[in-house]
Write a structure and sequence with these properties.
The complex is a heterodimer. By secondary structure, chain A is mainly alpha-helical. Chain A has a domain of 174 residues: MetI-like (MetI-like fold), CATH 1.10.3720.10. Chain A has 15 helices and no strands. In chain A, helix 1 crosses helix 14 and helix 4 runs parallel beside helix 7. Chain B is mainly α. Chain B is 73% helix and 0% strand. Chain B is globular and about 70 Å long. At the A-B interface, helix 1, helix 2, helix 4, helix 5 and helix 6 of A face helix 1, helix 3, helix 4, helix 5 and helix 6 of B.
């Protein structure tokens, strides 16, 4: 029995190790490729540690596309989307959890029902609408979708609903208005949910590919994924520069995962999903 | 009196931003899109957009590709994820560090363009990573055309899908498994149930809520496939050879922006949505509570 247990222990850890390696491998491959010469990439693609380390691909990257501008564009769009989304989710969740009012249940159901409408339906008419509103080529269409995302509201209602009502009562006795109660009590006490929603929105907007592909038409205004796609199509044979760009574009997301605290973030995310 | 009405209005003021924004940017296009799908280019009423979509073989090819990918993700990616979660949750594993979850989560928050750039090199024919590795191991004689052979197109995309989604799905399964009280398993063992029976009659039914969510995401994700494929196969007229990588949203996008058929594309959007609603209804029926 003990022997079997030991064997299973080894096997399970081995399988887990293989899984982790399989997930990490493409990232390691990307890093190695960004510093490898094209010659070596073609001759020894499986070699992860380059014989000769080169920074040429980064030079090519900065010369071929306005990388810094596009990086900052992406950053601006993602941060704006995150802030506005957190603001809206917070206000709406506060409205739903703080008050009892006529139509509350029906309105909540209406919000959840919006999740059932497949986004494919909206692609054509939304494009026409943004074009008619002269918002084509701006960042507005990239930011709006996350602001009307029902999941974030649902998640934050779950978390804000756990705030003890006594806190609200005593704040009212102290003469706080609703906006003050919202800002000084509800928001600080549901930092976890709002934070997760902000981080998720940042990541989704940062990585978004389809919306900027549809709505942006000037190289100087592109977000990074579109800039990299263009770069990829210039370089049919050399992959060094796109790999270098891909590597740099991953940094913010990896930094966030490292800083926000892996465990805290992922557990919070899971909590939202399980209840959903 | 005035302050009482104000008090009554307050909750609506707090929740109004969502409803105002959704009415403008969600509801209005949903309706106007339907109107658009029933018009010809001159704005006259017509049903021909829908007729054309239904008669369009490429459209059905795209739907069937999405359906195949969906089956693949439900019956390949999800079981793999479940097995990984069961292993992570087993008593043999002991405490896992947060770093494992972060790694499992990472591919899910990686941009599709990054995935496209990397996997193009992994899957390319000449000096591709996978081909070189397989040839070095003498498992194949000549390189496989992972991206341009219609037979290999779907397995290649599924390979990428597995890499991208198995980690996050096993985290979902794991959180479901951790919610199952250990006593239930012990009780079953006292009653003489084997491991397999315990899994089948206790673990699996208790995982149903999380599984419903995961399968729903797999279905909608399959029909929303876009960036992965677009970054892998720069499209000429067909997407992948013989449309082997044509997915519904890509086809819709091409009709709209390459062929300038916005009315037909609007109709296509509605047909895709109805198909998707049918599939998810069937799923909900299959996953219903049976008592």
């Amino acid at each position: 029995m003990k022997k079997k247990r030991f064997a299973l222990n080894i096997v399970f850890h081995l399988v887990l190790l293989i899984a982790v390696c399989a997930i990490i491998y493409p990232f390691v491959f990307m890093i190695s490729g960004a510093f490898k010469t094209d010659f070596e990439m073609n001759r020894h693609i499986t070699q992860l540690i380059p014989r000769e380390i080169t920074l040429d691909h980064f030079h090519t990257l900065f010369e071929s596309i306005p990388f810094i501008t596009q990086f900052l564009n992406s950053f601006f769009v993602a941060v704006t989307a995150a802030i506005l989304t957190v603001l809206i989710d917070g206000l709406v969740a506060y409205g739903f959890t703080r008050f009892t009012f006529r139509g509350r249940g029906a309105l909540m159901t209406a919000i959840l029902a919006t999740m059932l409408i497949p986004p494919q339906v909206l692609m054509v008419p939304q494009f026409q609408m943004y074009k008619n509103l002269h918002l084509f080529g701006t960042y507005v269409p990239l930011i709006i979708p996350s602001m009307i995302n029902a999941f974030g509201i649902f998640l934050n209602c779950q978390i804000m609903g756990q705030i003890p009502r006594d806190l609200y009562e005593s704040a009212m006795i102290d003469g706080y208005g609703e906006l003050q109660i919202f800002a000084r009590i509800a928001v600080p006490l549901s930092k976890a949910g709002l934070g997760i929603q902000g981080v998720l929105t940042f990541m989704n907007t940062w990585n978004d590919f389809m919306t900027p592909l549809i709505y942006l038409n000037e190289e100087q205004r592109y977000t990074l994924p579109i800039g990299l796609m263009r770069l990829q199509s210039f370089y049919k044979i050399s992959y060094g520069a796109p790999l270098a760009g891909a590597l740099l574009s991953c940094i913010p997301v990896i930094l966030i995962l490292a800083i926000v605290g892996q465990k805290y973030f992922i557990q919070g995310l899971m909590a939202g999903a399980v209840k959903g | 009196m005035k302050s009482k009405t104000k008090r009554k209005l307050q909750p609506y003021l707090f929740i109004s931003p969502f409803f105002i924004l959704y009415a403008i940017f969600g509801l209005y296009p949903t309706v106007s899109g339907f109107a658009l799908s029933l018009q010809d280019k001159a704005g006259q009423f017509t049903m021909s957009n829908y007729q054309k979509v239904f008669a369009d073989q490429r459209f059905w090819k795209a739907i069937s590709n999405a359906a195949v990918y969906m089956m693949g993700s439900i019956f390949i990616i999800l079981p793999v994820a479940l097995i990984a979660a069961l292993m992570l949750n087993s008593k043999y594993m002991g405490k896992k560090s947060g770093i494992v979850s972060t790694i499992f989560f990472l591919p899910n928050v990686t941009s599709v363009i990054v995935i496209g750039i990397v996997f193009k090199l992994v899957l390319r024919v000449n000096n591709g990573l996978l081909n070189t590795a397989l040839q070095t191991l003498h498992m194949i004689d000549r390189p496989i055309k992972f991206l341009s052979d219609p037979f290999w197109a779907m397995p290649s995309i599924l390979l990428i899908g597995t890499w991208r989604f198995f980690g996050v799905n096993s985290l979902y399964f794991l959180s479901g498994l951790q919610g199952i009280p250990a006593e239930l398993g012990e009780a079953a063992r006292i009653d003489g149930a084997g491991k397999w029976k315990e899994f089948w009659y206790i673990t699996l039914p208790l995982l149903k809520p999380i599984m419903t969510y995961i399968v729903f995401m797999a279905i909608t994700g399959s029909f929303a496939m876009f960036g992965e494929v677009l970054t892998l196969v720069q499209n000429g007229s067909s997407v992948g050879s013989r449309d082997s990588m044509l997915f519904p949203v890509i086809y819709l996008y091409n009709s709209m922006f390459k062929n300038n058929q916005s009315n037909r594309a609007a109709a296509m959007g509605y047909v895709i949505a109805v198909i998707l609603l049918l599939i998810t209804s069937v799923q909900r029926w299959l996953f219903r509570d049976k008592d």
